[in-house]
Write a structure and sequence with these properties.
- The protein is of the alpha/beta class.
- It is about 20% helix and about 25% strand.
- It has an 8-stranded parallel β-sheet with strand order 25-24-22-19-18-28-27-26. Strands 9, 12, 13, 16 and 17 form a 5-stranded mixed β-sheet that branches. Strands 4-3-7-8 form a 4-stranded antiparallel β-sheet, with no helix packed on it.
- Helix 1 runs parallel beside helix 2.
- The longest helix is centred in the middle third of the chain and has 24 residues.
Length: about 600
């Protein structure tokens, strides 16, 4: 039997939000880059591409966005942000996606090159534009295959001339839905499909039997625009199978322990329209016998990587008001809440930000980064105190950072230990971490302010597509032994913060990437060589839980992406799958042993 080394990954998630794209045109030369003149009337505000010639020595570009409303006589600066040029292209094209632009305002934007040593080039001329509010109305009829409580979305592909993303529809009557999409212009080409629940390609309509992933396409001939009634006669993965299969009923002996926290983890993104489904989702979790739910929250995000800057509000996750609603719904259903406090990266500029943060930096850079991290974690813990949340997970995403030497690593480690005291000040609940990095110089898990060591486990348990639970259990023991060693090292319980197995054939074995990003496996959506296999997913969880039961210092585990609606895709979510019955069974077994 092969041995496996468990892997714990930091999984930054790119969150889509309703964004407005601005564009500008080409600087003539490096010293005095100029915008090509474009009249405001010619601008398509939702997507005008910025084009510029390569300034070979420029490391990145600094932008300033200014605006004024109808009652103001002067422009005020709204935002400063950076873009990093992509390599190996003579010409560059930027889509400047900026959130929170206002209607009926005059805007202007300029940029300058940033050279080595942070030397700045000259500002370009201003590019002026105004926001407009032209609307395209989409109307849809769908057949009865749309499951109860599901919501259709218009999914706009990023090859379109309007802002891409998922637009939630509103129900007009039985099987009739509508949505308005703003900020369109005459001549815009829109490429789109209808999807269920905004959930991505595995949930698209089956547009034609021969080309199920095809996109509809049309061009706006006048504004405002109303599209004739579209029809979806069949949804991909629309079948609503009963979650039947084989669930082991062996009453395993569980190692003595005082507690096991088995939690159902909700999606990291809080998309528009899901608010209405929070209450029913919490109740479903409670009705299935579970006692804990994990809510992911990113109070603020990183909007610039060097120097590190934060937004002043959440982007793509809950507002404070939405979080309060979710916590209230959980408590009303009798659930205890685990709050996972995250520090995500602005999806507008994620690649550039991640690139700027990766690699080595000076000591002062790391000190500034950790100060920003403390601010986000403080925000989250304050919310946990406000809402009496008993368990908090502190995110520790280092974004592929490396260190110049062990001395610098020790300096970072010491700073983390010091910040933990500030972050947890006034909080009396349990504190754990989101991931584990095995490094003797990073021993902040020893801090008295951390109660449990958090890890992530995406088990690879088989060399066979059709393996037995017994064989997968034998492999799971290898991984669990290594995870258990982590707890022994720090004399603390271990909490499996993210625990996931996908639902496609081979996901528990030879085809597994050993990563559990919820998008992984999406390429298999129409791949007949990787069909849905919920039994394999359930068996892998059964084997893994059996291995956990053989330990006494694994304190709990959280599932991944328990969706707000039934979604029969190949991802690791367990909602309404056989795997959910396995989780129910083991939750009851742990409860019985403890009680």
């Amino acid at each position: 039997m092969k041995k496996h080394t468990p892997r714990w990954y930091i999984l930054p998630t790119i969150i889509l939000s309703a964004l407005l794209c601005v564009s500008v045109a080409a600087p003539a030369h490096a010293k005095a880059a100029q915008f090509k003149k474009i009249n405001d009337s010619d601008l398509r505000i939702t997507k005008v591409t910025m084009r510029y010639k390569k300034i070979s020595s420029a490391k990145r570009y600094k932008f300033e966005l200014w605006s004024k409303g109808v009652t103001r006589s002067k422009y005020g600066k709204d935002k400063t942000f950076y873009k990093k040029p992509k390599k190996k292209k003579k010409k560059k094209y930027f889509k400047l996606k900026r959130g929170n632009l206002k209607a009926n305002r005059d805007y202007r934007i300029r940029y300058r090159a940033v050279y080595s040593g942070k030397r700045l080039g000259q500002w370009s001329n201003w590019k002026n534009f105004t926001t407009k509010d032209y609307t395209a109305t989409f109307n849809l009829t769908t057949d009865d295959s749309l499951p109860t409580n599901d919501i259709p979305y218009v999914f706009v592909d990023d090859s379109s001339d309007i802002e891409s993303g998922s637009y939630m529809m509103t129900k007009v009557s039985d099987n009739v839905w509508t949505v308005d999409i703003n900020d369109i212009s005459t001549g815009d080409t829109i490429k789109f499909a209808y999807s269920r629940n905004g959930g991505g390609p595995t949930l698209f309509e089956q547009f034609t039997p021969d080309y199920p992933t095809a996109l509809r396409s049309f061009t706006i001939d006048s504004v405002p625009y109303e599209r004739d009634m579209d029809t979806v006669e069949q949804w991909r993965w629309a079948e609503n199978p009963e979650p039947n299969g084989i669930v082991d009923d062996t009453n395993y002996v569980i190692d003595d322990r005082n507690q096991y926290v088995l939690s159902i983890g909700l999606p990291e993104d809080h998309n528009d329209g899901y608010d209405a489904l929070v209450e029913s989702t919490m109740q479903k979790i409670a009705d299935n016998g579970f006692n804990y739910v994990t809510i992911n929250n990113s109070p603020r995000v990183i909007i610039n990587g060097d120097p590190v800057e934060l937004s002043n509000e959440p982007l793509g996750t809950q507002t404070d008001e939405q979080l309060a609603t979710m916590i209230a719904a959980a408590e009303s259903a009798g659930l205890q809440v685990i709050l996972s406090v995250q520090m995500k990266v602005d999806p507008d500029n994620a690649d550039e930000i991640e690139s700027e943060m990766s690699g080595t930096h000076s000591d002062s850079y790391y000190e500034a980064y950790l100060t920003r991290w403390r601010e986000v974690m403080n925000d989250g813990v304050d919310l946990a105190i406000e809402h009496n949340v008993p368990i908090v997970v502190l995110d520790n995403p280092w974004h592929d950072m490396t260190y110049t030497d062990d001395d610098q690593k020790a300096m970072v480690n010491g700073n983390i230990k010091g910040l933990l005291a500030t972050i947890t000040d006034g909080y009396s609940g349990t504190v754990t971490t989101s991931t584990y990095e095995e490094d003797a110089k990073l021993d902040f898990y020893n801090s008295t302010y951390i109660d449990w060591v958090g890890v992530q486990w995406y088990p690879d348990l088989s060399d066979d597509y059709d393996d037995s639970v017994a064989n997968m259990y034998a492999d799971a023991l290898t991984d669990i032994a290594e995870i258990e060693t982590i707890g022994t090292t720090y004399s603390k319980p271990v909490f499996i913060h993210k625990f996931g197995v996908h639902g496609w054939d081979g996901a528990a074995g030879p085809e597994s990437s050993n990563t559990a990003g919820e998008g992984y496996g999406a390429e298999y959506a129409d791949d007949s060589t990787h069909p849905i296999d919920y039994q394999e997913q359930a068996d892998a969880y059964e084997a893994a839980f059996h291995a956990i039961a053989d330990t006494n210092n694994i304190i709990g585990s959280t599932s991944i992406n328990y969706t707000y609606q039934d979604q029969f895709a190949k991802t690791a979510n367990i909602r309404s799958k056989i795997a959910e019955q396995v989780w129910q069974r083991w939750d009851a077994l742990f409860d019985a042993q403890i009680n």
